Amino acid sequence: MALKTATIPITDHNTGGICTTYYMVRYKADSESSWKIMNPNIFTPPVVINGLSASTNYSVEITRYCCDGNQSNPVTITVTTPA
């Protein structure tokens, strides 16, 4: 079975003079209990996750880390890979 790739666009909201340093991305198949952390972190959108199984739902959690040391609340989305 060929492995799949998921590409997730991100709009960088550099507001109030606070810039984005990087995004931390965690993901897991819905059938898994443990999260995988992308390494290295994402410095420039989009998020591209390689090596995913076909026809599978994945939860993807993205957290923005800012230049001032703060971070956003994680945003979780569901991605389904094609067959």
CATH topology description: Immunoglobulin-like
- The radius of gyration computed from the alpha-carbon positions, rounded to a whole number of angstroms, is 14 Å
What is the CATH architecture annotation?
A: Sandwich
Q: How many structural domains are formed by the residues?
A: 1
Estimate percent helicity.
under 10%
By helix and strand content, what is the structural category? mainly beta
Which residues sit in consecutive blocks of at least 5 with pLDDT less than 50?
none
CATH superfamily label:
Immunoglobulins
Strand content: over 45%
- How do the strands line up in the largest sheet? 3-2-5-6
Rounded mean pLDDT score: 89
What is the H/E string?
EEEEEE
Amino-to-carboxy terminus distance: 9 Å
Structure, described:
The protein has 83 residues and is mainly β. The chain has one domain: Sandwich (Immunoglobulin-like), CATH 2.60.40.10. 0% of the residues lie in helices and 47% in strands. The protein has strands at residues 4-8, 20-29, 36-37, 47-52, 57-66, 75-80. A hairpin with an 8-residue loop joins strand 5 (57-66) and strand 6. The N and C termini lie close together (9 Å). The mean pLDDT is 89.
